[in-house]
Design a protein that fits this description.
By secondary structure, the protein is α+β, with helices and mostly antiparallel strands. The protein is built from ten helices and eleven strands. The strands form two sheets. Strands 1, 2, 3, 4, 5, 6 and 8 form a seven-stranded mixed β-sheet that branches. It has a four-stranded antiparallel β-sheet with strand order 9-10-7-11, with helices on one face. The model has no long low-confidence stretch (mean pLDDT about 95). The structure holds adenosine-5'-triphosphate (ATP). The site of adenosine-5'-triphosphate has 19 residues, from helix 1 and helix 2.
Length: about 290
């Protein structure tokens, strides 16, 4: 356990996608998306401490590079360069969000780093300025800075906040595989006639506080690629539904699957049911944040 004085500790929350549609491709190769983003109660904990020079990352619970490839490092360097900071920072990451799982763990760590170091070092960047820096690290970083329920368009960085999604309980299941977001987008067949999720209808259901309107519109076009490669995702979705979910979907590029339940009791019962099925490496009962 590392102990610092003058430290700042921040949570970096995971997200799920209640809806994910791809509507086109830009000249630079990026996909144009329409996504309903939702923060959930699974989070990493980051502790920031000032240092004389350099950026050092330490970590508990998870295997990741702690050097320049870590998105925390990239965020810290970008922010310190933008703020003309000569000093350094020590950053400790307690990793809980499953890695390469479609839950934006890396983007959320980057967002927490921009927010945390901005505060710790008194740099005075506005949220909007942090979002503009964040998109240079990843398309989901601006959303992770904002959090809550939102419609994300463009490459994911054009954000429209939505009212909080209706209350419910969630079961989140991560099978024992990691999926590269790049692989999934590269294998997305633009010629295929997808069933596009009803993103506008989902926004209205959220605005009207209709949980059934949300669960009936869950949809993610990336399932076409990831489920073909990893059929366990379809089995997990089926299991979630057999265990009483109102709806179930893969999040982001996968492989994480979530189920939406009426109550925490039902989600906990489904947890036991999924545990017995043995399809998931990690299971969480949580809710929207
Ligand atoms: P998204 O939903 O944004 O596509 P993801 O949840 O699928 O992301 P992440 O957990 O964010 O995936 O990780 C994607 C890759 O980024 C991993 O392969 C990992 O090596 C790298 N990475 C770098 N820094 C981090 C970090 N701090 N946390 C998680 N992954 C990181």
């Amino acid at each position: 356990m590392i102990q610092y004085t003058d430290t700042l500790t921040r949570k970096a929350y995971a997200k799920i996608n209640l809806g994910l549609d791809v509507i086109g491709r830009l000249e630079n190769g990026y996909h144009q998306v329409r996504m309903i983003m939702q923060t959930v109660g699974i989070y990493d904990v980051l502790t920031f401490a000032p240092a004389e020079s350099g950026i050092r990352i330490s970590m508990d619970g998870g295997e990741l590079p702690t050097g320049e490839d870590n998105l925390i490092y990239k965020a810290a360097r970008l922010l310190m360069e933008a703020g003309g900071v000569k000093a350094g920072a020590d950053i400790h990451l307690e990793k809980h969000i499953p890695i390469a799982a479609g839950m934006a763990g890396g983007s959320s760590d980057a967002a927490a780093t921009l927010l945390g170091l901005n505060e710790l070092l008194g740099l005075g960047f506005s949220r909007e300025q942090l979002r503009q820096l964040g998109v240079r690290i990843g398309a989901d970083v601006p959303y992770c800075i904002m959090g809550g329920t939102a419609l994300a368009e463009g490459i994911g960085e054009v954000l429209t906040p939505l009212p909080p999604a209706p209350r419910c309980a969630l079961l989140v299941a991560k099978p024992d595989i990691q999926v590269s977001t790049k692989y999934v987008y590269e294998h997305l067949d633009a010629e295929k006639a997808w069933r596009h999720p009803d993103i506008d209808g989902m926004c209205s259901a959220i605005e009207n506080g209709e949980l059934a309107g949300v669960t009936s519109r869950l949809g993610n076009v990336l399932e076409t690629v990831t489920i073909e490669a990893y059929p366990v995702i379809a089995r997990l979705k089926q299991e979630m539904l057999s265990c009483g979910a109102m709806g179930s979907l893969m999040s982001g590029s996968g492989p994480t699957v979530f189920g939406i339940y009426d109550s925490q009791e039902q989600a906990r019962a489904a947890y036991d049911c999924l545990e017995k099925a043995g399809l998931a490496r990690e299971l969480f009962v949580t809710s929207f944040v």
